[in-house]
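[09:14] KT: can someone run the structure on this one? pasting the chain below
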Amino acid sequence: MTGLPKITVVTPSYNQAQFLDRTMRSVLEQGYPNLEYIVIDGGSTDGSQDIIAKHARDLAWWVSEKDRGQSNAINKGLKRATGDWIAWQNSDDVYCPGAFASLARAAARYSDADLIIGNVNLIDAEDRVLRDLCYVTPTFNSMLAEGMILTNQVAFWRRELHDRIGWLDESLTCAFDYDWFLRVLEAGHGAHVNACWGGYRFHGETKTSLIGDRCRAERAKVLAGRGLPGWMGNLYRLRRMGLLALQGHFGYIARGLFQRTFGVEREV
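[09:31] RB: done, structure tokens below
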């Protein structure tokens, strides 16, 4: 483990037995030797506890008890985390093989970065890839201007950030991730690796598909008093397209322009 940063992953879980084993194996089968894995279950009744127990010897800690929601469960794990780099992975999403090794290389390369992200694939309930989502180096202003231009499924940050900015806002049900990454980028610097690090699963029970109105209201609350004028959104979209072009994602850019022109929902 000499020279490899310690990585802590926290998985919050509640009644996701259909996907949980795939999530846990995507973490544990990375083959990364300096890993700390924590699973926080909210008292599932669908067999999730049996799945977690099956992997218990490979976990740093796990618990199954009632909590106050997803952000509270994640915070429970984050407060136990001892890694150099921290992440949470939802119990229905997955990491791609080699993601942790790629992060370790990126951490050495981007020594001033506080947040490092990769690209992600949108996948369905059967792990089929629906489409790719390609990102660029995130900044605080680009997050304000464009919204969630990254996703927790492929994001890692330095543990020391918690000493400076605290924990997830447990008063938020949906937008706690947007709020968190805004705070991270307000306090530190971001970096991006042009590689797919994970799968973001879309299915009928995902949170955003069930409570979209609440998510939009919370996002407005997070942005209250610090939003940017509309023209800045266009400026940062041009920035993103330019950076994507430098990465060689010309087909991806064309697809996004087509969707935007013809009123199809954007990818981010």
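[09:33] KT: thanks! The chain has a mean pLDDT of 93.
[09:34] RB: yep, looked fine to me
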